[in-house]
Write a structure and sequence with these properties.
With about 325 residues, the protein is an alpha/beta fold. It contains 13 helices and five strands. The N and C termini lie far apart (about 65 Å).
Length: about 325
């Protein structure tokens, strides 16, 4: 209502003002008056165009923010706090701009959602978004941030930042335009993050989330929770540490399982498809072509047990990886 009344007031002023201009033009036919009239028309046109865009922006903000909130709340509700990657304790979360890079499936999204769940009593004091969401096909990140910021939000967590056009420039502008806005972003394309045209080094703290260590694998699979050991302590007490560990768990058996499937947390979800998903990721890393999806075509040969050609037997997964 306030916006509508403001528009109506401006419209009345414009009508009165344009009537005054017409009367002036009737009385004076000189070049200066015509130029003045043209300037007035251009001003009014630009004003109403901006007013129209503002009205559309208000409609977009009120209606279209809910799909993002729904996804955010759903993902947050499904986030488990039982196991947290080591990097969470090493990040200085007070920094205004934080970047977390790492390979796809390493646990970056879970890390962000776990941090929100642990540290925000009201989860709507923060917002998590993924820039590969189809919502951003018709909306901009800048418009979303303006809406969230104007409604009091000061903590924004952004996933898959490399999917957004000119993401580094956009982040730089958001950092400079909103002095008390805290942004944490993640990206799977480490090459794009390292080689971004816009230098964010003076503004951000950049971290790397590697694949899971053997120690993390043991905790993730509920085998045993081993506290971190420094290199100095390991060199001094390696015998005692090894004896204590082997008395509680069959280390070699667990280590072989870790080598086979333990680097990425999604192995529990993927099940038998874990190796195939790793193969797809390997192809993506070898051929990072923008706009194309990687597909691994695995030469498994004939599967039938009664195949007359023994040389075309089904290949083992280690042979497949060697060929890839």
């Amino acid at each position: 209502m306030q916006f509508a009344s403001h528009t109506m007031s401006v419209l009345i002023c414009v009508i009165l003002h344009s009537g005054f201009i017409r009367n002036s033009l009737k009385q004076s036919n000189n070049h200066f008056s015509k130029s003045y009239f043209c300037l007035e028309i251009r001003f009014l046109k630009s004003y109403f165009v901006s007013l129209h865009h503002h009205q559309l922006s208000l409609t977009m903000e009120q209606q279209d923010i809910f799909p993002l909130l729904t996804v955010y709340h759903r993902r947050l509700a499904m986030t488990n706090l039982r196991f947290t990657r080591f990097l969470h304790e090493r990040i200085n979360w007070k920094t205004r701009l934080i970047g977390i890079r790492g390979s796809r499936g390493a646990g970056k999204t879970t890390l962000l959602l776990q941090h929100i769940k642990k540290n925000f009593g009201n989860v709507d004091d923060a917002m998590w978004i993924s820039l590969d969401n189809i919502w951003f096909k018709t909306h901009s990140l800048t418009e979303l941030v303006e809406y969230l910021y104007s409604h009091g939000l000061r903590y924004l967590f952004v996933d898959e930042v490399h999917k957004y056009p000119d993401w580094a420039i956009v982040l730089k502008n958001l950092y400079d335009s909103y002095p008390d806005l805290n942004i944490v972003y993640t990206g799977s394309s480490m090459l794009e993050i390292d080689n971004s045209k816009t230098d964010l080094s003076r503004r951000q703290s950049l971290y790397t989330l590697p694949v899971m260590s053997f120690r993390e694998y043991l905790a993730f699979t509920n085998v045993i929770d081993v506290p971190p050991v420094s290199l100095e302590e390991l060199l001094e007490r390696h015998v005692a540490i090894a004896m204590n560990l082997t008395a509680k768990v069959k280390v070699l058996k667990a280590f072989n399982e870790y080598l086979a499937k333990g680097c990425y947390p999604f192995f529990l979800e993927a099940g038998e498809d874990y190796e195939m998903r790793l193969a797809v990721e390997a192809v993506k890393r070898l051929f990072p072509i923008e706009g194309y999806e990687a597909v691994a075509i695995v030469p498994i040969g004939h599967i039938a047990p009664d195949c007359p050609h023994p040389e075309k037997k089904r290949k083992e997964i280690d042979e497949i990886f060697k060929e890839i």
